[in-house]
Amino acid sequence: MKKLLMVACAFALACQQTTKEMPTTTDTTTATTPVTEQRVSVPPSHSWSRPEEAAVEHLTLDLGVDFTKKQLAGKATLRIRNSGSANKLVLDTRDLTISRVTRDDGTAANYRVGDVQGTFGAPLEIDITPQTKSVTIEYVSSPNAAALQWLEPPQTAGKKHPFLLSQSQSILARTWVPIQDTPSVRFTYDATLRVPKELMAVMSASNPTAKSTDGVYKFSMPQPIPSYLLAISVGDLAFRSLGRNTGVYAEPSVVERAASEFADTQKMVTAAEELYGPYRWGRYDMLVLPPSFPFGGMENPRLTFLTPTMIAGDRSLVSLIAHELAHSWSGNLVTNAAWNDFWLNEGFTTYIERRISEKLYGKDHAEMLWTLGLKELRDDFETLPDADEHLVLNLNGRDPDEGATQVPYEKGALFLRLIEQTAGRDKFDAFLRKYFDDHAFQTMTTDRFIQLLRERLLVPNRIDETALQMSAWLHGPGLPPNAPLPKSEAFVTVEAQAKAAASGAAPSMLQTTGWTTQEWLHFLHSLPKDIGAEKMAQLDQQFAFTKSGNNEILAAWLELAVDNRYEAAYPALEQFLTSQGRRKFLKPLYTKLAATPEGLERAKQIYAKARPTYHSVSVQTIDEILKWQ
After folding, report:
1. Consecutive H or E run containing 235
2. Burial of 172 (0-12, 13-18, 19+ CB in 10 A)
3. Angle 489-502/533-543 helices, nearest 10 degrees?
4. What is the dihedral of CA 243, 249, 252, 257, to 10 degrees?
5. How far from the centroid of its chain's Cα atoms is residue 156's Cα?
6. 551, 585 contact by CB (below 8 A)
7. Strands (E), 529-568
8. pLDDT band at 19 (very low <50, low <70, confident <90, very high)
9. pLDDT tens digits for 54-86?
10. Which of 36, 319, 367, 531 is most buried as measured by Cβ atoms within 10 A of its Cβ?
11. CA–CA separation, 230 vs 217, rounded Å?
């Protein structure tokens, strides 16, 4: 891994330099610090940093949160580990205004900011000596920092106070902290945040459970994390305990519903520990964000960020919690060293999520989740180029967010299920537990994982690895012929009812009593895409899909509504697209709308209203779909 990083970083920072004088401000005088503008190419490793020379090992933040200016302002102190001869510390930045850099000996440090290269931002080179132990960077974030979303009171549940949330994955931490923004670098951190007194601040660290009297909050993360797990949120928050080391934060009007919905969280932690070893992060708490959050969940350690769209009132969507919890082992504990190996985070996590769900809710429930996931994977295969269907991706020079398809999640999980079936569950469980124990708080590559798989599972148990067809899984498109195919007996019945509905059976005659959310989703997925507006109306009259309070069901129904031009659902479609910003829901709906001229016009009218309320992660995706300018 170190050799690969050195090659990538050397390529990324190979450039010609021109120097000009730019002022930086000290406490009492104006100093002149030479700043070099660099002509740089896009970094294949997604980071300008050179951690093999000097690496960040601890971060101290001291920031003020200004809702009026929509800025974070203050300083970041970086303790570094020097290889012994490094005279530069190279960091990633994007849209940061840097006013001063000092070394630990109190002297001002010369620094250079390179040319901005789109999503990758610009390299920040700081002059150090081999004896330098830390540097302090005084800076201000941009009001348009891509990781941060500043919500006005009307965009929150309480409607009285503003709200701040972050999303640092994949390479957005550099938009609010000058850092080595690569998963190959892990560091501990502590922070002091100053926020309006009526609000509470939380981070991916130790957190308060009540508001402070002065608006000052202090945080500590003693376990080393990669930069994409840096997280911050500030809002009118309340806390409810769920168990020994679990709890939930949310706005006061949401927190009781959230606590009820997430009541099984402590059981999930226990189930995961029984399978894969101790939970190593102290507490597992969750934060329910306003609906503009672009993802279902984000596995920030100690504080998972969650969308409110998964609160269904019947705990039917808590597999999302199982997924984010599973990241406490795969991803957070053992992390992909580079984004090309993203499946090492998400494939493992999806597999573990299904194992937790099976342990708590039974095999057939887990098989339903596997089947729904396989459907989403096959949907992605219809639109992805062959190269993006590989588990090992080539994201060099691309925004790594482009790799966040169902391939690393579902194809990766199916590959691990194949290994489990080939080796036997007991042996595979023992292998995984030792894998997490031996590589805790470390990074992992695909090549290293395959080496471990051979040495610790395949060879000792005399398993012929040719049966796994590993090359086809890792470096080939689609699903190899030996892919495990989940089968749910409950879904067999569901498919029969969907076939009957498509054949003209009256909806009132369908046998749907007692169906779970997963069965309803499979029913909607099993209907013909061209079932027609008339049959849609009949189904809607019987089952009230357009009025569903379950966002997963509603999203699936609205996709069918667009396919069949079922205009009775269009007001609900507009309401759905303008009231939440979860990319999983937005992307397919806008894509379907954009497929026809009249649909594209409707999509643009809706998006013009909704775009200011979406997080930049969703905006980037929908802008591309609609060719927004």
Report:
1. strand 232-235
2. buried
3. 130
4. -60
5. 21
6. yes
7. none
8. very low
9. 999 999 999 999 999 999 999 999 999 998 889
10. 319
11. 16
Q: How far is CA 205 from the centre of its chain?
A: 17
Q: Are 46 and 77 in contact (CB under 8 A)?
A: no
Averaged over 165-172, what is the pLDDT?
Answer: 98
Write the Ramachandran bin of 307: left for phi over 0, alpha for psi from -120 to 50, otherwise beta.
beta
Distance of alpha carbon 116 from alpha carbon 161, whole angstroms: 35
Which pair of tokens denotes residue 324? 């984010």
Say if residue 68 is in the same domain as residue 129: yes
Which residues carry out catalysis? 324, 409
172's CB contacts (< 8 A; 6+ apart) are 94, 146, 147, 228, 616, 617
Residue of 161, 170, 171, 105 lying closest to 136 (CA atoms):
105
Residues 6 or more apart in contact with residue 509 via CB below 8 angstroms? 500
Give me the CATH number covering residue 187: 2.60.40.1730
Predicted pLDDT at 41: 59
What's the pTM value of the predicted model, to 2 decimals?
0.92
Burial class (CB in 10 A: 0-12, 13-18, 19+), 46: buried
Query: Are 212 and 349 members of one domain?
Result: no
CA–CA gap between residue 114 and residue 124 (Å, rounded): 7
Parent domain of 54: 2-236
The CATH code of the domain that includes 596 is 1.25.40.320
- Structural domain count of the chain: 3
Digit-coded pLDDT (tens) for 359-386: 999 999 999 999 999 999 999 999 999 9
22, 116: one domain: yes
For the chain, the residue count is: 629
Q: Among candidates 457, 319, 343, 461, which has minimal Cα distance to 391?
A: 343
- Tell me, yes or no, whether 299 lies in a domain: no
CB 139 within 8 A of CB 122: no
Phi, psi of 367 (to 5 degrees): -65, -35
Using alpha carbons only, what angle is made at residue 550 by residues 298 and 609, rounded to the nearest 5 degrees? 75
Determine the residue type at 368: M
308, amino acid identity: P
The domain boundary, picked from 207, 236, 265, lies at: 236
SS3 185: coil
What pLDDT does residue 43 have? 75
How does residue 357 score in pLDDT terms, banded at 50, 70 and 90? very high
- Which is nearest to 183 in space by CA: 170, 202, 166? 170
pLDDT for residue 42: 67
The arrangement of strands across the sheet holding 96-103 comes to 96-103, 134-141, 71-82, 54-66, 187-194, 216-225
For residue 609, count CB atoms less than 10 angstroms from its CB and return exposed for 0-12, middle for 13-18, buried for 19 or more: exposed
With vertex at residue 240, the alpha carbon angle to CA 238 and CA 246, rounded to the nearest 5 degrees, is: 125
What letter represents residue 404's amino acid?
Answer: A
CB atoms within 10 A of CB 614: 25
Helix (H) or strand (E) holding 156: none
CA-CA-CA-CA torsion sign (417, 422, 424, 430): negative
